[in-house]
Amino acid sequence: MEPVVAIVGRPNSGKSTLFNRMTKKSGRSAITQDTPGVTRDRNYGRAEWEGRHFTVIDTGGLYGESAPLLSEGFEKGIRTRKFNGVTIQSIVDQVKEQVMLAVDEADIIIHLLDVKEGLTPSDKELGRMLLTSGKTVITAINKVDNPKNELMAAEFYEIGASNIMTVSSMSGLGYEELMDHLTSLMPDTADKVQSDDEASIPKIAVVGKPNVGKSTLINALLSKNRLIVSPVPGTTRDSIDSVCTYYKKSYMFIDTAGIRKKGKENAIEWYSVVRAMKSIERCDVAIIMIDAAEGITDQDQKIAGMVHDYGKSALLLYNKWDLVPEPEEAYKKIEAEVARKIWFLDHAPVLTASGLQRKRITKIFPLISELISERQKRIPTAQLNKVFARAFEGRLMPTYKGREIKFKYITQVGIMPPEFTLFANYPQAIKEQHIRYIEKILREEFSFRGTPIRIYVKPR
After folding, report:
1. Looking at domain 381-459, does it have CATH number 3.40.50.11290?
2. How much is the pLDDT for 434?
3. Domain at 4-66+97-184, CATH homologous superfamily
4. I need a labelling partner for 48 at 20 to 30 A (CA). Which of 19, 227, 259, 454 fits?
5. How far is CA 40 from the centre of its chain?
6. Higher per-residue pLDDT: 439 or 190
7. The pTM of the whole model exceeds 0.85
8. In whole angstroms, how far apart are CA 196 and each of 61, 110, 285, 417?
9. Could you tell me the CATH superfamily of domain 196-375?
10. 3-state SS record for the chain
11. Is 365 exposed, middle or buried (0-12, 13-18, 19+ CB in 10 A)?
12. Bridge pairing between strands 203-208 and 249-255
């Protein structure tokens, strides 16, 4: 499992800016604004440093209990209030709950402080709480971008930390040192030793929006009510494993909490999101369930992207097919919808089914077996290069600084998912369209149905 790092601190201390710098390679960004309290929910992203991958959580700004109440804005000194006769938490209390869940989930916590604002009672209070939490804590002083600020950072030793680091998340000063220290503290991510029986069981994560029918599908496959099934969205709060046997072959199904749109989660549901991410991380195949009546929504696109980013094989399952009025016409539109909205998974098989009526659900098993086989496939180097020589024969190659780009040879370097290294004379000139063309060649010749392909380019 990848380590989880949470960034916590007072509002406007630069948490989102640091988050953006850490996750920029993954394309995730948090909203940054020079106004306290912009980030209220937790924001998740994947980061990488010197070959170490980990999950980063950006949290909302947290004031201590002793902090003065804001006269304006989202707090107004109210801890609870009535809305349509129902007592609800104030936003500040909700933010605090989000932060506490992030701290509980994290392996390492970065306590980010603002050198320009100086050490405050809220900082001391939060610092004491973190240092007694039993978690690994890095105390980092942000906005240190000149010698004067470097001297001012010394007062933060009062927080009780044995060591503090200085950084400027905006300019990047001190960032490399922070990341080196962070990765040195990360727990060993080596795979746990598994029994042969456990390791051989394919792990299938069933993912999708809330109320799309994930638990109903697994109950139908298990032919028993192993899971709680409810028409109320958000019933499943955590990931649940169930072993299913089909024709003497075992499969482990992981039912996950529905992943909602950002801004619609409460604290418990946000906790479920990171659990769902971890379920995707440890699975072999992800069944992405789509409501057949709705088609692919924005949230389905994000879930599909998450599966692809983690390098997992994918099966697109259009559930509730029994509610579709004109199935033949609807099925004709599926291929175009996939190509338009989740084109990066156009290699994934599509299945229509009804978990409630148990129609066509057993077709899942042969597809899973096929996808497992595809993600474990190895192609000999000689066969790969024969295919490539034929594919590029007579093809006009692009140039780089007046010289022709040449692909020297290609070799497979990994499986689950399949990974390839392509050697070229000018790797810096290889564009995204070239990688897509190479992937097209690989799929046309060797299929790799349902699994992502990773292609790396190196100098000869």
Report:
1. no
2. 86
3. P-loop containing nucleotide triphosphate hydrolases (3.40.50.300)
4. 259
5. 19
6. 439
7. no
8. 46, 38, 19, 21
9. P-loop containing nucleotide triphosphate hydrolases (3.40.50.300)
10. CCCEEEEECCCCCCHHHHHHHHHHHHCCCCCCCCCCCCCCCCEEEEEEECCEEEEEEECCCCCCCCCCCCCCCCCCCCCEEEECCEEEECHHHHHHHHHHHHHHHCCEEEEEEECCCCCCHHHHHHHHHHHCCCCEEEEEEECCCCHHHHHHHHHHHHHCCCCEEECCCCCCCCHHHHHHHHHHCCCCCCCCCCCHHHHHCCEEEEEECCCCCHHHHHHHHHCCCCCCCCCCCCCCCCCEEEEEEECCEEEEEEECCCCCCCCCCCHHHHHHHHHHHHHHHHCCEEEEEEECCCCCCHHHHHHHHHHHHCCCEEEEEEECHHHCCCHHHHHHHHHHHHHHHCHHHCCCCEEECECCCCECHHHHHHHHHHHHHHHCCCCCHHHHHHHHHHHHCCCCCCEECCEECCEEEEEEEECCCCEEEEEECCHHHCCHHHHHHHHHHHHHHHCCCCCCCEEEEEEC
11. middle
12. parallel
152 strand-pairing partners:
none
Output the six-digit token pair for 328: 């033949």
Segments of the chain assigned to CATH 3.40.50.300: 4-66+97-184, 196-375
229-256 residue pLDDT tens? 555 555 554 566 778 888 888 888 887 7
Token readout for 154 is: 């010394």
Note the pLDDT tens digit of each residue in 5-24: 999 888 888 988 999 899 87
